[in-house]
Amino acid sequence: MKTNYFKFIGAFLILIFIIGCNSEEKVKVGISIGPDHERWLKDRDYLVQRLENHGAQVFVLEAGNNERMQSKQVEELVTKDKIDVLIIIPVNSETAGLMVDNAKRTKEGLKVIAYDRMIKNCMLDFYISFDNVKVGELQADYLTRIKSGGKYALLGGDQTDNNSILLRLGQMNVLQPLVTKGDVKIVIDRFVDGWNANLAYQIVDDYLKENKGLDAIVASNDELARGASMALDKYNMSTKVLLSGQDAQIDACKRIIEGKQTMTVYKFIESLAHSAANIAIQLGKNEPMSNSYATVNNGRKLVPSLLLPSMIQVTPENIRMTVIADGYLDEKQVFGN
After folding, report:
1. What is the DSSP string of 117-148?
2. Taking 50 as the threshold, does the pLDDT of residue 16 lie above it?
3. CA 323/CA 188 separation, integer angstroms
4. How far apart are CA 218 and CA 142, in angstroms?
5. 15 Cβ contact partners less than 8 Å away, ≥ 6 residues apart
6. Dihedral angle, C-alpha 75, 223, 248, 114, nearest 10 °
7. pTM recorded for the entire structure
8. Is 290:299 a contact under the CB 8 Å cutoff?
9. Closest Cα partner for 31 from 57, 63, 55, 60?
10. 46 CB contacts (<8 Å, ≥6 apart)?
11. Which is deepest, 87, 161, 199, 239, by most CB within 10 Å?
12. Residue 91 and residue 119: Cα distance in Å, rounded?
């Protein structure tokens, strides 16, 4: 009888242990992706993979660069999917704050992370990005080391994206001393709505219709570089004008090999995504956060922030040793068969 009794107690304890383990609910993480450029597909895949490795339940919605669509999708993630943590890449850094505050009012205890784009004037829980001032410095530094004087064009991103302003600050940290000396003349200084390649094309085309001579274009990302390159092609100037970019997109790396784009900045987005996923799990489980994080003022509060310095200039000389060796792009994608 005693043997059966102890067997029963043992089985009961094992059952309680199993139930206890299974009762720990998975953290539900919603990812709202506003912009629709090639780069964000890799962020999405890295984020989902890392979160699922942590045991999280992940919901992803993509807004196709549509503010209203993103607002509806965030509402759906909060009310339908009952997420615990929202990772959001906003279409518009200025207006997305209302979206965040509404979501937090709807779901008590919801944690919100701004991913790679700051969201202004809201109760953010965390902001993670790269040092975008440094990215801008890397772009302008590389071009000015090749040509320290001449006519320069500046093509910035959408002004509703805070990163556009930070990139321009970095670019001007390098360019302003040369402008002051009279070595560099800035002949185009524009921000481009939606980081739109077609608008970038039109801006450069309009300039070249009326003016002769252009030495360099500091394009803030590879989409803008694509538009600028199309305009340069039209005037048979694509291999004569220096051209920067950012994100190491496939088409940009092909242009670099062809001599139609001078450089791009490759940011280690796998590190960004993995760090964001780790932070999301911590927030979702209400684990204590490190007090060693920097803070960035979003206009409403000092937001705990992580700004990664992991980036490198990609050129024809090191393309195999960077984006290809890192597995970010396949050699056949860049060089063909």
Report:
1. S---SS--SEEEEE-HHHHHHHHHHHHHHH-S
2. no
3. 30
4. 10
5. none
6. -20
7. 0.86
8. no
9. 60
10. 269, 270, 272, 273, 274
11. 87
12. 10
Tokens at 209, concatenated: 């219709």
Structure tokens at 74: 């965030």
- d(Cα 126, Cα 81) in Å, to the nearest integer? 21
Residue 169: closest CA among 185, 187, 150, 156 = 156
Domains (ranges, CATH) in the chain?
25-124+269-309 (3.40.50.2300), 132-267+312-335 (3.40.50.2300)
pLDDT tens column, 19-64: 444 446 799 999 999 998 888 999 999 999 999 999 999 999 999 9
Tens digit of each residue's pLDDT (9 = 90 or more) over 177-200:
999 999 999 999 999 999 999 999
DSSP state of 64: T
> Which letter does DSSP use for residue 323 in this model?
I
Amino acid code (one letter) for 158: D
User: What does 211-249 look like in DSSP terms, one character per residue?
Assistant: -----EEEESSHHHHHHHHHHHHHTT-TTTSEE--SS--
Q: Cβ atoms within 10 A of the Cβ of 197, count?
A: 22
Q: Which helix (H) or strand (E) holds 98?
A: helix 96-106
Tell me how long the chain is.
337
Q: Per DSSP, which regions of 19-161 are E strands?
A: 28-33, 57-62, 85-89, 111-115, 126-130, 150-156
User: Is 315:256 a contact under the CB 8 Å cutoff?
Assistant: yes
